[in-house]
């Protein structure tokens, strides 16, 4: 599991999923990475980007915790 992704805080409330942005120019590789991330408890794919420009816009929106980048 991802470090801290499934741990619960002391208050007993559940943490929100870790949001991952997958960046790669190869659509097949992006799909593989997305499927892998979605299989991890406590993680979710926040989006995909095929270029750095698209990724940058998504990051500026502030709804991403982690980026995979090739």
Describe this protein with a few key phrases.
70 residues; 3-stranded parallel β-sheet; 2 helices; 3 strands; flat; alpha/beta
Describe this protein's structure.
Helix 1 links the parallel strand 1 (18-23) and strand 2 (43-49). The chain contains two helices and three strands. It is flat and about 40 Å long. The chain has helices at residues 27-38, 52-60; strands at 18-23, 43-49, 66-69. It has a three-stranded parallel sheet with strand order 2-1-3, sandwiched between helices. The chain is α/β, with parallel strands linked by helices and 70 residues long.
SSE arrangement:
Elements: E1 18-23, H1 27-38, E2 43-49, H2 52-60, E3 66-69
Parallel strand pairs: 1-2, 1-3
Number of helices: 2
Number of strands: 3
| C-alpha-based Rg, rounded | 13 Å
Per DSSP, what share of the residues sits in E-state strands of 2 or more residues?
Answer: 15-25%
Strands across the major sheet, in which order? Answer: 2-1-3
**Kindly state the mean pLDDT as a whole number?**
87
Helix content: 25-40%
General shape: flat
Gap between N and C termini, in Å?
A: 22 Å
What's the SSE pattern?
EHEHE
- The structural class is alpha/beta
Provide the low-confidence segments as ranges.
Answer: none
Major beta sheet summary: 3 strands, parallel
């Amino acid at each position: 599991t991802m470090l801290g992704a499934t741990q619960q805080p002391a208050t007993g409330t559940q943490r929100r999923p870790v949001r991952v942005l997958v960046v790669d120019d190869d659509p097949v590789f992006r799909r593989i990475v997305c499927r892998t991330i979605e299989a991890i408890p406590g993680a979710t794919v926040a989006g995909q980007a095929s270029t750095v420009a698209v990724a940058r816009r998504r990051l500026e929106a502030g709804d991403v915790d982690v980026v995979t980048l090739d």
